[in-house]
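Translate sequence into structure tokens.
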Amino acid sequence: MKSGWEEHKGKKIFFARYDHMTMQEVRAEVGEVKKNMALNPSNNTLLVLVDTTGTIVSPEVLNLYKEVAAASGSIKSRTAILGTSGPRRGILEIVSAFSKNKVIPFDDAQKAKDWLVA
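Result follows.
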């Protein structure tokens, strides 16, 4: 599993890493991500950084991303996403529609982490 918990400025962030994955890798990672996000070590808002850089977004991959968004729907979260330039921003809007929480695109991981913990 590539994804996991990281600490940034004293706060825990779940870094969901789908970057440069094949369909099969995304499928396996999504299951692990759903399990790990449920282990939110904080009683506060779940902070999530998602990286989709270089991953081909097919209808199946989009459905898998929707699964994760739906699974975290009851948890208050703040989400930053990397790898969403151009047409991927439209995909982000679709995935965001399935989540009650705001998802903000970023081009830089450090800026995304700073926004999450602000």
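Note: DSSP finds four helices and five strands in the chain.
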